[in-house]
Write the structure tokens for this entry.
Amino acid sequence: MNLVSKDILGTEQLTREEIEGILDTAVSFKEVSTRQIKKVPTLRGRTIINLFFEASTRTRTSFEIAGKRLSADVINISASTSSTVKGESLLDTAYNLEAMNPDLLIVRHSISGVPHMIASHIKCPVINAGDGAHEHPTQALLDLLTIREHTKQLAGLKVAIVGDIAHSRVARSNIHAMLKCGMDVTVVGPPTMIPVGMECLGVRILHDLEEAVSQVDVVMMLRIQLERQNEGLFPSFREYSNQFCLTVDKLKHSPKNILIMHPGPVNRGIEIALDVMEGPHSVILDQVNNGVALRMALMYLLLGGSSETDH
Ligand code: CP
């Protein structure tokens, strides 16, 4: 399997075959991170630029680790250290970085569409590391990798995605990818956080968390975006938590093998209770662990590798 596009901008553009090929390639890279010397020469001599205009712990670090484990040279640029603070346009920043011949640009920005705009103007591949409320494709792919690792297959699985669906790039990327893989998706949250017409995408809508988790194999909790607390989407944190915080009590009718996920960062006690987050069903740190192998796979595939070749 070879990727059709030069870039990874969203799961909306990926085919099911591409998604499965990416996950299979990621599985083959997992072993590298278990070695004492965690390095393979696959991308030796290649240059990868991490261009992050928004805060990140997991995504930025795991892209950096992934590149280094493949022996690439990885350069990190953040908003505060780029010349955009001096008035340079984003596109000029991208043209100037391209003039230094990088092999891959990884872009995170708070404005939807920025990675797409950069990708359409430069020749080198671009990976979207999260753009506004639009897409976060690498998060969705590592989520699918984590689910598949625990369930062996994706088709037919029932998933609930819970929280601020309207503003979640993680939800959007997961919905596209999960539906393509034959999964059954329910979105759960207060009506103010679920976009009108959402069912047209092929998802079910519920407003009762306990009912939702009694019917699904996987529940993915989303971060309540604290920066939105003044937008009137929910009356107070206490009221939101009463209805939508995943607690042991709300899980009392759920299947015994339910998987509990969260992309992070977590607001402990607001969308997920501490004992659930750290309990036996939680695969939250597995998601973080899989992020490295998944990003290694994407770098490898975008820079010329095929899922069928030995790396
Ligand atoms: N899941 C995620 O994107 O986390 P960061 O914002 O820490 O990268």
Q: What stands out?
A: Residues 56-59, 130, 136, 139, 263-265 surround phosphoric acid mono(formamide)ester (CB under 6 Å). The longest strand covers residues 47-52. The chain has a mean pLDDT of 95. The first helix runs from residue 16 to 30.
